[in-house]
Task: structure prediction
Amino acid sequence: MARILVVDDEESVNLLLCDALALAGHQTLSARHGLEAIRLAREESVDLILLDVNMPGADGYEVLERIRERGISTPVIFLTARQESEDTKRGFTLGADDFVRKPFRLEEVVLRVAAVLRRTAPAEALEMLRVGGVCLSVDQHAVTVDGGAVELSPTEFRLLQHLMENSGRVLSRGQLLREVWGYPADGETKLVDTYVSYLRRKLGDHVTIRTVRGVGYQLAHGPQ
Result:
């Protein structure tokens, strides 16, 4: 969905963020200090930067200031434990797009990332998937059924996107478990069945998620 640069000097936090974003379908790069972040922002094509404020050497504010001076307009979300309003004001003045306060929930970070990508994506670059009466906007992280909005959880969205991208193909439960959840294909496949039932309820008869007995699921147009 997007290429994201994760900048945090704490290795465990950096790895957790990269793993969560990868599970949400994003590609990640990582940097452990400000100078490395500036270099990667200059040399690599990225869609968004998750940027820690408190880092040795060049802190997050200096990183943002220096990349903006170079004409790099990549959206930036600050990660910070600071609560003072002056810090927030400084970040937005320098060109930040959002703040996430530490400690944070990984799901919140993934949702904030999706929201900023949605706001900053060029209209002509929006990727749309359509099957039957269901329309899924990858970049806007939105689903409509016959023009009406349908609220999906991040996991439901990823599952539906994968099914729509493979419309007409029979996908095994193991494939879905690996490609949507990132779990081993021989793991607990009841998780897949549960989320398929959630999608069936929310999408109604506008598309069919057909059960292929002993194998898995197939997305098809209209009722069975």
